[in-house]
Request: fold
Amino acid sequence: MKEAKIRLFVNWPLGAGQAVAVTADQANYLFNVMRLARGAQVLLFNGQSGEWRAEVAETGKRGGVLICAQQTAPQIMPPDLWLLFAPIKKARTDFIVEKAVEMGAARICPVQTQHTNAGHIRPEKLTAYAVEAAEQCGATFVPPVDDLRPLDKVLAAWPEGRLLFWADEATAGQNLPITGPKGAASALLIGPEGGFSDAEKSRLRALPFIRPISLGPRILRAETAAVAALTLWQTEMGDWE
Ligand code: SAH
Reply:
């Protein structure tokens, strides 16, 4: 039996003997680009049922069938961590989404701040990046990517009990680490290149669930700040041990 190397996210139930229909895009990738033939092995996950080894049963130009054989990994949900960030230039936004998936965020929430560079995003594109990142990093879960929402609306509807760790560039160099109980419902907030406006800063400071954090003595680019904050949270409160 050849070893399965390709991992695919599918919108389909998974279980022993389950037949899975592949989409036209997946058929192109599997049978045209990767040249998989009948009998080849792939790994599948659907975000809920762990990872499954499946065998190619039918190949076609616009479709095909895979048959699930055996579960190869359990379903693992990330800790309850949201990443709120102000979208920046396209390639850098894509990078943040990819890294958020690798680092184990449970939800990705683009927010519009007063100095946000991007006026709109394409959530379906960003979701495709999230799927790709999950496929390559071995995750069995794909965090949903929200549409762009104004920061003040998000704050106004903030769920009770969720901590919001705010990476505040004004605290650069102060000793303000991430601390809190393991696994506590949390979110990280990363600002745009222009930082937060004075009005946003005073609003944020007054919120009962806000926890300002510092990311060291230097001012980081937004995408670096996102990865750094995810790392700190995972180390202190997340699933890294
Ligand atoms: N233009 C701003 C910097 C923005 S950096 C200025 O010059 O002040 C982009 C975002 O990364 C910031 O809004 C903040 O959320 C985060 N960030 C960068 N460096 C940081 C640091 N040392 N501590 C805390 N947050 C930081």
User: Anything to note?
Assistant: The chain has two domains: 7-73, 81-237. Residues 136 and 200 are 37 Å apart (CA to CA). Residues 7-73 form a domain with the Ribosomal Protein L25; Chain P fold (CATH 2.40.240.20).
